[in-house]
């Protein structure tokens, strides 16, 4: 492999310039990445990520409303007046097919917006892990795995997913010049990767969401490589990647 990989453990941990010229993978297992992957899998035409309610409101007012869904959460709960929250299980084919989604979340969409200067921005989680790995195996750019975290803090489930990606790319043989972030993510996956669902269910963020979300949400987000889509940010809209691998 000619490229290098690095890991950022939260949104404040990186600057926009850290993304320049690179392939960025945005990971927010609970739940923005998982919601976006599920929506694209179920036929959504695109997702417009926004980083606050004001931006979401402005965009929704300027668009043809029957074709758009205003979606998202604040502190884990659906925002009043929105069509959907941030539960991937809400984004069924019957609800989202052929619709464009305006999505506003506490952590994940902020990570996407901040990383948008990257040459390529991929949305990923456990759900589409195989597609992420396939894409990264065929890139010649340096890679940054961006863990959305929670309000600037590390989230174990995001770092575990980053470690899983790294393990699939390198096997059990990390390069000697691997960054500290790569080593930490890889080590976390080596220790806890045999039981992803239990590890995620007992993470701090999953515990914060208790009483707010259905436990089926968490189990859904832990289904490794269950979906065959690769959401990519292009000119502010996230759509499925169909092009030739580069």
What order do the helices and strands come in, and which of them pair?
Layout: E1 5-8, E2 23-27, H1 32-41, E3 46-50, H2 53-61, E4 68-74, E5 77-78, H3 93-96, E6 100-104, H4 108-114, E7 120-124, H5 129-137, E8 143-147, H6 156-170, H7 180-192, H8 196-201, H9 204-208, H10 215-221, E9 231-234, E10 237-240
Parallel strand pairs: 1-8, 2-7, 2-8, 3-6, 4-6
Antiparallel strand pairs: 4-5, 9-10
Description:
Helix content is 35%, strand content 19%. The relative contact order is 0.23. The chain is globular. The mean pLDDT is 93. The chain has a domain at 5-38 and 106-235: ComB-like (putative 2-phosphosulfolactate phosphatase). It has 10 helices and 10 strands. Helix 5 packs across helix 6.
Quick overview:
The chain is 35% helix and 19% strand. With 246 residues, it is an alpha/beta fold.
Give the mean pLDDT: 93
Could you give the order of strands across the largest sheet? 1-8-2-7
CATH architecture of the domain at 5-38 and 106-235: Alpha-Beta Complex
CATH topology of the domain at 5-38 and 106-235: putative 2-phosphosulfolactate phosphatase
What does the largest sheet look like?
4 strands, parallel
Radius of gyration: 17 Å
CATH superfamily of the domain at 5-38 and 106-235: ComB-like
Could you give the count of β-strands?
A: 10
* Helix/strand structural class: alpha/beta
How large is the count of helical segments? 10
Rounded to the nearest angstrom, the distance between the terminal CA atoms is 14 Å
**Which runs of at least 5 residues are low in confidence (pLDDT < 50)?**
none
**Proportion of residues in extended strands:** 15-25%
Principal-axes shape call: globular
The run of helices and strands is EEHEHEEHEHEHEHHHHHEE
Assign a percent range to the helix content.
25-40%
CATH top-level class of the domain at 5-38 and 106-235:
Alpha Beta
């Amino acid at each position: 492999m000619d490229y290098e990989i690095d890991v950022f453990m939260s949104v404040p941990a990186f600057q926009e310039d850290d993304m320049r010229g690179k392939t960025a993978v945005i990971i927010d297992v609970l739940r923005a990445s998982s919601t976006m992957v599920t929506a694209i899998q179920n036929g959504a035409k695109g997702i417009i990520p926004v980083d606050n309610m004001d931006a979401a409101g402005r965009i929704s007012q300027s668009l043809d409303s029957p074709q758009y869904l205003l979606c998202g959460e604040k502190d884990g709960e659906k925002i009043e007046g929105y069509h959907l929250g941030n539960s991937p299980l809400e984004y069924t084919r019957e609800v989202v097919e052929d619709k464009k989604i305006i999505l506003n979340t506490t952590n994940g969409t902020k990570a996407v917006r901040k990383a948008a200067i990257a040459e390529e921005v991929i949305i990923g989680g456990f759900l589409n892990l195989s597609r992420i790995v396939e894409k990264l195996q065929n890139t010649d750019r340096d890679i940054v795995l961006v863990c959305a975290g929670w309000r600037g803090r590390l989230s174990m489930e995001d770092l575990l997913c980053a470690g899983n990606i790294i393990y699939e790319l390198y096997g059990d043989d990390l390069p000697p010049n691997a960054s500290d972030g790569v080593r930490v993510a890889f080590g976390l996956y080596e220790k806890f990767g045999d039981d992803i669902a239990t590890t995620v269910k007992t993470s701090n963020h999953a515990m914060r969401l208790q009483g707010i979300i259905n436990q089926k949400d968490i189990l859904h987000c832990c289904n490794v490589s269950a979906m065959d889509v690769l959401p990519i940010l292009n000119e502010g809209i996230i759509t499925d990647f169909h092009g030739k691998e580069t």
